[in-house]
Design a protein that fits this description.
Helix content is 43%, strand content 10%. The protein is mainly alpha-helical. The model has no long low-confidence stretch (mean pLDDT 89).
């Protein structure tokens, strides 16, 4: 059985045209205790280049969201902690 938290379709984060939270989660990861389970995703900022991270954000937005995010390497660079 798939977690109810795994469904990205229609999620506000993947539909944001600025992809603010999507970039933050991809860069810093997530370690969120949720009511039913624990959601964990490792950070990808150290293991990938800005071009790969921008492509990842745009892919997720295009596949699960509205496809309006056009994140660039400059956007990733500004979002890095």
């Amino acid at each position: 059985m798939q977690s109810p938290y795994a469904d990205l379709c229609g999620n506000r984060t993947v539909n944001d045209p600025d992809a603010t939270n999507l970039m933050a989660i991809l860069l810093a990861g997530s370690n969120a205790p949720l009511p039913v389970e624990h959601a964990f995703m490792p950070p990808f900022a150290r293991g990938h280049g800005d071009d790969e991270l921008a492509a990842g954000v745009n892919f997720v937005n295009g596949l699960f969201g509205n496809g309006m995010a056009k994140v660039t390497t400059a956007d990733i660079d500004k979002a890095l902690p």
